[in-house]
Design brief:
The chain is mainly beta. The protein is 11% helix and 35% strand. The chain has an eight-stranded mixed sheet, with helices on one face. Strands 1, 31, 33, 34, 35, 39 and 42 form a seven-stranded antiparallel sheet that branches. A seven-stranded mixed sheet has the order 14-13-12-28-29-30-23, with no helix packed on it. The structure holds fe (ii) ion (FE2). InterPro entries: Calcineurin-like_PHP, FN3_dom, Metallo-depent_PP-like, PAPs_N, Purple_acid_Pase-like_N, TAT_signal.
């Protein structure tokens, strides 16, 4: 039997139908004897390592990436944690088939899966592998898909850069442990790049991937200059909506990692750039910074309206306080990036690379927007085009860079001159900090403000590899304890010359809607059985449809469906051979089951090839919720060639 998979339904899991129609699809699968396709030998065992939970294209998705020792067919199995008894996944756990390839930077194989159609406020468990060869189970939790949320941003773990992988791992693990213990409800872990010291050093990757928090909270991984020089970064992190065109790489795509990507998590559009690529090609083609700007422009134009905030993430800080503050590429980008970011309404930029903390003033078109903005202001009100640039310090303690003095002779408006309000600091930075102490950045995303904090996750004490190896450090647990705040700012967005009006809409009490009960998983009819030497038959049931109608109009509604032809490559047979027997699984909302439809094999009719009623309610029906199901009966002539066929069942809701 073909391993089951899940068809991706468009849009959000729940569909509201105020009036008119809405449709979604089921995948239907049936295998004929001998027509197995991707089924792997369940007995062939593999070991799995480096499992990481990644961010998906939106809050209803997660991407799981891992390494395996064997080149077998693998999958991720997912089930609500509440349905797991004594460690056993339930029979109806949903599986997502993995894709991947042989590793090129090391031995073994890589696999990834996109988990789709997650429900909000649900605890899930998952494992990777195949029947008889599973990884341990891990868990994550979704939260409300609307409204405020918090995420954490980490700079440069760069495992191995102190020269001691174990010490670097210990600091990284402790920052993750502390940060997620102090903030258990955070929804994303965003990295600023430089996960490891040496791009293809798998011992360093194993140390980076060791903390279990990376399997519990979705990670949005950003590529750094230490990650880029090999394929291990891409093998360890599959990212959503990724453009792997050559202009988002620097160098040979077969041996280096790269790509720009974006995702929307609730109210934030995140755009993540491979800032290793920045040199504009000499042949006049689009590349380097110009390509990144074109990418950001395109994504914002297409998707900016789908989110309230736009946050960019890339590794190479362009406004930072320490060793890299005067780098040539850094200063070049102050010219290449900033006007575009201002014009596009970017709210905040998260950066790494300089192993020190800084928060910029509101920067517009590469200049301080408001000369009166005070250093360290706790409330910032950027005007149109004002962008806040944040650089994270080391999350692991593996390496710190010390803050450099500004150069009063540097008159370049994009240069490194001093701040007139605070001459020890660069003109662009409101806050600069370096204490040789691990820290992380917490961002609270709220309806009308972003709250950004830089929080200590350590003191001078171990684990703090750079200090353990001799770097000075003066913090004390009494003076600046773990959890104390280095910087906190509330960013208030600009609302133009008019007034924005916002209203929060709770779950509607008067609406008609429907959703697929549970996952929109593949309806697998298994292997068809031959009957009397004349025909094949396979049976099963659709994934139930939950219909709710709380409108006071008591208007009639109906749910209907039709099926496409069944296909396997260029082989096909008619969808008319599918019949069904609708039923009301749970009564409510005035639901009445539609009429049974026999297979076209029985009556030479059209079966479900034309639209048929699954259920309906008349005008004046009771308000409430119903669950509709249907038993499927597929009969077709035995001259159909063997294969693994699939069809699509399109569900349509109608109401007036
Ligand atoms: Fe870096």
């Amino acid at each position: 039997m073909r391993p089951s998979t899940t068809a991706q339904a468009p849009g959000r899991a729940r569909r509201r139908v105020a009036a008119g129609a809405a449709a979604a699809i089921f995948g239907l699968g049936v295998a004929l004897a001998g027509g197995l396709t991707t089924a792997a030998s369940a007995a062939e065992a593999s070991t799995y390592s480096g499992i990481i939970l990644g961010v998906g294209a939106n809050e209803t998705q997660r991407i799981v990436t891992w390494y395996s020792s064997a080149d077998t067919a693998q999958k991720v199995q997912v089930a609500p944690t509440a349905s797991i008894v004594n460690g056993e996944f339930p029979a109806d756990a949903v599986s997502f088939d993995a894709v991947g390839a042989a590793n090129t930077s090391t031995t073994g194989y890589n696999r990834h899966v996109t988990i789709t159609n997650l429900k909000e406020n649900t605890a899930y468990s998952y494992r990777v592998g195949s029947e008889g060869s599973w990884s341990p189970a891990y868990s994550f939790r979704t939260q409300d898909f609307e409204g405020d949320y918090d995420f954490l941003f980490f700079g440069d773990p760069q495992i191995g850069s102190s020269g001691d992988i174990a010490k670097d791992q210990a600091g990284w693990a402790e920052t993750l442990r502390y940060a997620t213990t102090a903030n258990p409800d955070i929804e994303l872990l965003v990295s600023g790049g430089d996960h490891v010291e040496s791009a293809n050093n798998e011992a360093q990757w194993s140390a980076f991937l060791a903390p279990d928090e990376l399997r519990k909270y979705p990670v949005a991984a950003t590529i750094g200059n230490h990650d880029v020089g090999g394929k291990s970064w891409e093998q360890h992190h599959f990212t959503p909506n990724t453009d792997r065109s050559s202009q988002y790489y620097n160098g040979d795509q077969s041996t280096r990692s790269g790509g720009d990507f974006w995702y929307i998590y609730k109210d934030v559009l995140f755009i993540d750039l491979n800032s290793n690529s920045y040199v504009n090609p000499t042949d006049g083609s689009l590349g380097g910074d110009a390509a990144h700007v074109a990418y950001v422009t395109d994504v914002v134009k297409k998707h900016g309206a789908e989110a309230k905030w736009t946050v960019l993430v890339y590794h190479h800080s362009i406004y930072s306080p320490a060793s890299h503050a005067t780098d040539g590429d850094n200063k070049q980008r102050r010219k290449d990036f900033t006007t575009a970011f201002s014009d596009l309404g970017v709210d905040m930029v998260l950066q790494g690379h300089d192993h020190s903390y800084s928060r910029s003033y509101a920067i517009k078109n590469g200049q301080k927007e408001n000369p009166a903005e005070q250093p360290g202001a706790a409330e910032v009100f950027p005007g149109p085009g004002g962008v806040i640039y944040v650089t994270a310090n080391s999350a692991s303690g593996s390496k710190y860079y010390d803050i450099k003095k500004p150069n009063p002779a540097d008159k370049d408006p994009h240069g490194n001159g001093p701040d007139p309000l605070n001459p020890d600091s660069y003109w662009y930075n409101s806050v600069q900090n370096q204490e040789h102490v691990r820290s992380y950045v917490k961002v609270q995303v709220k309806a009308d403000k972003l709250v950004v904090e830089n929080i200590r996750s350590g003191t001078c004490a171990a684990p703090n590899a750079a200090v353990e190896k001799g770097l000075s450090c003066t913090n004390t647990p009494e003076g600046e304890p773990v959890g104390s705040i280095v910087d906190k700012v509330t960013i208030h967005p600009y609302h133009g010359n008019g007034q924005d009006i916002q209203v929060n809409v709770p779950t509607a009490t008067g609406e008609f809607g429907w959703t697929i009960d549970g996952y929109n998983g593949l309806v697998n009819l298994g292997t068809a059985q031959e009957r009397n030497g004349w025909y094949f038959e396979a049976t099963g049931s659709i994934n139930p449809i939950v219909v709710s109608d709380s409108r006071f109009s008591l208007a009639p509604w109906s749910i209907s469906a039709n099926v496409s032809d069944f296909r396997d490559g260029d082989k096909t047979f008619s969808g008319s051979y599918l019949g069904w027997s609708p039923k009301v699984v749970e009564a409510g909302a005035g639901a009445q089951a539609g009429s049974a439809v026999v297979s076209g094999y029985d009556d030479q009719g059209q079966g479900l090839a034309i639209s048929r009623g699954l259920g309906a309610a008349d005008q004046g029906h009771a308000r409430g919720t119903a669950k509709l199901g249907a038993d499927l009966d597929l009969k077709f002539p035995n001259e159909v060639a063997k294969g693994s066929y699939r069809a699509t069942l399109t569900i349509t809701a109608l109401s007036s």
